[in-house]
Amino acid sequence: MTTVNSSSAPAHRTGGTAEERRVLGATLVGTTIEWYDFFIYAQATAVVLTPLFLAPLNSTNPALAQIVAFATIGISFLFRPLGAIVAGHLGDKLGRKQMLVFTLVMMGAATALIGVLPTYGQIGVAAPILLILLRILQGFSAGGEWGGAALMSVEHAPVHKRGLFGAYPQIGVPIGMILATGVLWVLTTTMGPAFGQWGWRLPFLFSLVLIAVGYFVRRSVEESPVFKEMALRRKESSAPLGQLFRHHTKEVVLTALIFLANNAAGYLLIAFFISYGGSVLKLPRPDLLLVTTLGAFGWLIFTFVGGALSDRLGRIRTFQIGYAGLIIWAVPMWYLIDSKNLFLFFVAVFVLTITLGLSYGPQAALYAEMFPAKVRYSGVSIGYALGSILGGAFAPTIAQALLASYKSSIPIGIYIVVAAVISLVAVSLVKDPRGVDLHVREVHEEYLAEHPEIRRDLGVAGEADTAR
Q1: DSSP character at residue 9
Q2: Which residues form the Major facilitator superfamily (MFS) profile domain (predicted)?
């Protein structure tokens, strides 16, 4: 057995290489497309899908129909852990890139099929059943997507820029939201009644173009350097899932709780605010879509800032600043929203996105640094998926139920405060892992002897080299 010499800096650690730029571009494009697919459903649910697929319930009890519609958003989250387990296991075995391409295509296919799905008026109860099945497929794909994209970016990063590199797949989320809400805004303002009749299908079908672009971008990226090292010790990583839960259950639980509040507040922004503004405040939906789209730019900017800031202040401190801000803002923002003033609505959304960005930008780097290489894909994917269930899966449903019970938006803010306190405590229990070595430290000498080119790539000194 021999040890990788950490003082020998492989080429991929130097930063700024063409391959690193391709990786960052690929992870950004891929996550943007996948989250566009995922968010277009959430946005369309708030705008148009409820009467089309839940027609009988919507005609008798619109409030309950909206709760049920939001629940279909959450159902897909329940299948994220399964997607994370499958993609994480195969990603640890076969490579990050293969799973990224696979999940990208699967998500796009499910989204496009929603675009051609018959409504309740055309095929009856089969319509919502088929819709839920396609949502499950979307959830399965999303569960495997994020972990692979996060690791591709962080594992290619120079040590002092992991937070910044890890922010690239993260900003794919607000960009995906900007695309989804922007497309809906354009269509609702230009198509009029035709949007509710057939125009709502266009943003789902548009996914086919995005998927083709993302597929070719991701196919051009080389496999993660850490995974190349893992190929040298296949015996030790023969059962990564078993090893994950046997030795790293605490880390999985913490990653899930750390993500809880960010995801819960994020899905209020993604899905609930538009529904609330339209049905309760009676504000024009096109205006709400525009305000939400503009507000999402704050999420984009501060997610990037959060990633970069974590390289200077540390992952934990940056998370703590973000969650402290969320605790402070979660209740007051509703007074601005309830003013029915679109500018104040925008201010409420924009300030919220600052807290979301600071508690989301460092996530990829933090999660990657919390797990050893041989279980890293599984660990970050499953932790992320469980956090999504605890946080965002049913956040719009819970918010709608609280509103129906208390006839006030303030309990929704209190719900987010409680979630943020839980996440703040969880992240504070983690010792900041910034700068930890992400690479496999031991490799098989016999394998290296057979593959001298890999020895050179990894900077490993063999016995002959040592003797010299």
Answers
A1: -
A2: 23-434
pTM as predicted: 0.78
Low-confidence ranges of the chain (pLDDT < 70): 1-16, 19, 88, 92, 96, 100, 143-145, 217-241, 439-468
Query: Exposed, middle or buried by CB within 10 Å (0-12, 13-18, 19+), for 452?
Result: exposed
CA distance 403 to 386: 26
Closest CA to 185 of 280, 282, 303, 278: 278
172, amino acid identity: G
Residue type, 90: L
Which stretches within 233-331 are classed as H helix? 240-247, 249-267, 273-279, 285-313, 315-329
Burial class (CB within 10 angstroms; exposed 0-12, middle 13-18, buried 19+) of 453 = exposed
d(CA 103, CA 145): 6
Number of other residues whose CB lies within 10 A of the CB of residue 255: 27
For residues 397, 401, 402, 406, the Cα torsion angle rounded to the nearest 10 degrees is: 160
CA angle 80, 371, 235 (to 5 degrees): 95
Q: Tokens 């309830």 identify what position?
A: 338
Domain 13-224+248-437: CATH superfamily is: MFS general substrate transporter like domains (1.20.1250.20)
Q: Which residues contact 332 (CB under 8 A, 6 or more apart)?
A: 413
Q: Which amino acid is at 98?
A: Q
